[in-house]
Write a structure and sequence with these properties.
It is a single chain. The strands form two sheets. A six-stranded parallel β-sheet has the order 4-3-1-2-9-10, with helices on both faces. It contains eleven helices and ten strands. It catalyses: L-glutamate = D-glutamate.
Length: about 270
């Protein structure tokens, strides 16, 4: 079995961990939440790149066979440098604008993401490869990540803020919405409350974990097994709170896995 590191600025990457536990439950996982520094989307590119590299090196030092950067912002700003410095597979996440363009019926796609992701070279390079007849309505989700981190994903406060962010996307006539931050799949209920079933939601968690599986198979580390691996939750802020949030947000049954918690010390 493999040891897989899953890293995010906070609890958003739990959406990736949830899918990993569904598809690849036999492996051991370390989930690292840098919640003391969340959200990353409002920090400088240089800070994000440096911090992400430090944390991925930490996960590698713990013996991880592969690392998933389960943060769109960190992927956009840091994955190239991290791959250059670490010899293990590094899987990133990026907004699913390509599948959204293929699925949209009217060619109008909303993209809800952090400001850092929307402004990144990596995102805009990907955007430039897509058909010009598809129109992308880019919208920053400023303020949403702190609310999700505070356990308020389904609160009226979140619903009000989300409604303001979705208004330009809805006004443009979008029939497809890209959830361009790993935190945002936890907003499915309020999004549906606001938009109903009239819009297609694009979330890349499934594709990311399938890519992880392919990488593990190439290393001979993905055998079939009925066993369930362990999950260690590491937080730079509050490890007990992280486990509580995980139990609340994950659809996977953590009781089937041995779990542990660790408070991250100074790794700078």
């Amino acid at each position: 079995m493999a040891l897989i590191g899953v890293f995010d600025s906070g609890v958003g990457g739990l959406s990736i961990l949830d899918e990993a536990l569904r598809q690849l439950p036999q492996h051991d996982y370390i989930y690292l939440a840098d919640s003391a520094n969340a959200p990353y989307g409002e920090k400088s590119s240089e800070w994000i790149a440096a911090r992400s590299l430090i944390l991925c090196k930490y996960l590698a030092s713990k013996g991880c066979d592969a690392i998933v950067i389960a943060c769109n912002t960190a992927t956009a700003e840091a994955i190239k440098q991290i791959r250059a410095e670490l010899s293990i597979p590094i899987i990133g996440v990026e907004p699913g604008i390509k599948p959204a363009a293929m699925q949209s019926q009217n060619g109008i796609v909303g993209v809800l993401a952090t400001e850092a992701t929307l402004n990144s070279d990596k995102f805009n390079a990907l955007l430039a490869t897509l058909p010009s007849n598809c129109r992308f309505i880019k919208q920053s989700g400023a303020g949403l990540v702190p609310l999700i981190e505070a356990g308020k994903a389904n609160s009226e406060e979140t619903l009000d803020l989300l409604g303001k962010h979705l208004e330009p996307i809805l006004d443009a006539g979008s029939d497809t919405l890209v959830l361009g931050c790993t935190h945002y799949p936890f907003l499915r209920k309020p999004i549906r409350k606001l938009l109903g079933d009239t819009i297609t939601l694009i979330d890349t968690s499934d594709a990311v974990v399938r890519q992880l599986g392919r990488q593990l198979e190439s290393l001979g580390l993905n055998p079939d097994s009925e066993e369930r691996g362990s999950v260690a939750f590491i937080s730079s802020k509050n490890e007990a709170s992280l486990l509580t949030m995980a139990k609340d947000l994950l659809s996977s049954d953590l009781n089937l896995h041995f779990t542990s918690t660790v408070l991250l010390g100074d790794v700078s």
